[in-house]
């Protein structure tokens, strides 16, 4: 009886080993076919999704499902001129931004905090923030050419200065011949 039990367990072990070998072979074949498949070409008008604003992403999603985007430009409201975005510290729903109000130096405002009375920072993105003002959402973009505000110099921060350009002789002009220095009497 003991030998019959050993024989059965040996058969079961071999059956499980064969099944495991087939499963590994099938998995290896599946991944080999996936890796050897020719990649699909990227469309010429493809854009990086992280670089799209929410309005642009909504337009692209509508286009993807065959609908024409409906007045996305009218939905985007201009941000009030009293707010100015100086930088985004982190993106998403847990980020923060440097926002100046009414020409004052900027201060760090976290998502969910009040920027001004009645205005709350809703979310942050790449060089853009969304503010909630009385239930309406406003988009505030960072000006790419803006300078830092007057009087705003963090301690230990110096503005980078441009390197002076070296003056070079125009092409085609050989350097002047400079005579060798005269020998002194004590040099031999």
Automatic annotation (TrEMBL):
It is found in: Cell inner membrane. One of its GO terms (biological process) is protein transport. It comes from the Bacteria. The keyword Cell inner membrane applies. Residues 161-173 have a biased composition (Pro residues). InterPro entries: T2SS_GspC_N. Gene3D superfamilies: 2.30.30.830. Transmembrane segments: none annotated. GO terms for cellular component: plasma membrane. Residues 145-188 are annotated as: Disordered. Keywords: Cell inner membrane, Cell membrane, Membrane, Protein transport, Transmembrane, Transmembrane helix, Transport. Residues 19-141 form the Type II secretion system protein GspC N-terminal domain. This is Type II secretion system protein C (GspC). It comes from Thiomonas bhubaneswarensis.
């Amino acid at each position: 009886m003991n030998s019959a039990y050993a024989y059965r367990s040996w058969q079961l072990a071999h059956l499980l080993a064969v099944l495991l070998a087939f499963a590994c072979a099938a998995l290896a074949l599946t991944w080999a076919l996936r890796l050897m498949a020719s990649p699909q070409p990227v469309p010429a008008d493809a854009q990086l999704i992280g670089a799209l604003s929410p309005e642009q992403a909504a337009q692209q999603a509508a286009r993807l499902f065959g609908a024409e985007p409906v007045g996305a430009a009218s939905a985007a409201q201009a941000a009030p001129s009293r707010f100015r975005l100086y930088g985004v510290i982190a993106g998403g729903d847990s980020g923060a931004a440097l926002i100046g109000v009414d020409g004052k130096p900027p201060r760090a405002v976290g998502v969910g905090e009040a920027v001004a009375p009645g205005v709350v920072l809703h979310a942050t993105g790449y060089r853009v923030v969304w503010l909630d003002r009385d239930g309406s959402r406003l988009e505030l973009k960072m000006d790419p050419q803006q300078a830092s505000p007057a009087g705003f110099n963090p301690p230990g921060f110096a503005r980078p200065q441009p390197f002076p350009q070296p003056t070079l002789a125009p092409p085609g002009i050989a350097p002047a011949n400079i005579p060798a220095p005269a020998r002194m009497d004590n040099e031999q």
